[in-house]
Amino acid sequence: MRALKPLPRRPTFWVEMGLAVGWAVLIFASLQPAQSGAASGSSWAGGSLWICVTDVAGAGSGMAGHAPGLISAGPSTPLLTTLPMLALMAMAMMLPPALPTVQRVALNSLYWRRRRAALEFVAVFLAVWMAYSLTVLGALDLAGLAAAPLAPAAALALAALWQLTPTKRRALQACHRTRPLPPRGWRATAAVAGFGLRNGLACLASCWAMMLTMAFAGPPRLAWMAALTGLITAERLSVRPRRACARVGAVLAAAALVSAALALA
Fold this sequence. Notes:
The chain is mainly α and about 260 residues long. It has helices spanning about 15-30, 60, 85-105, 115-145, 150-160, 165-175, 185-210, 220-235, 240-265.
């Protein structure tokens, strides 16, 4: 019991707890069976974990023209209603590789505001990913690209190619950059928010292609999420980023070939 007492004093304790709760909620949501005729918003399992479907009752007739991963928001499911699930997914997938940065932000602050600094950074960091997710969903929904059978394979192939570009490597390096932060006052708050924005944009430039594949993720979606989270985290924490980029690209290319073979079978 004594060994557990220092845990709440960790500057990143509440961020780590939120991460654990987020994964628990996603696991629970993925295990819930979709019930035809259920009340609106009663189940998250009627559609992809990437988008929270609020009209499960109409899913049976409305899913015919859509890919298994992305379900159109449509008039009965406003895109903004997906924000809670998008926040959960962004937190579950992008916070694990960012935890060392969150800890550095906290330790650069005075003791009494370390948790506040960590939460400020996380809020801005996740806002970047939520804005990206909403943009992707809206664009794909309007274009109707998610209905293409080979769309998942194409997204994986795009992600594999992006891994080999110099821009990807520079963005990954930018994810590791730090900056001195004022210890207190409004300058500290502004500096943490600015650092969260810059770090979030750098990580977005690094991982946007991998995250794009989640828009086409079919069952088992949770396994897809876990695999991508593992790849992003391993790449981010690798001491040899160039080699890590190439290896992740090879994994994505192999997944693209498998996805294409299954689509054409």
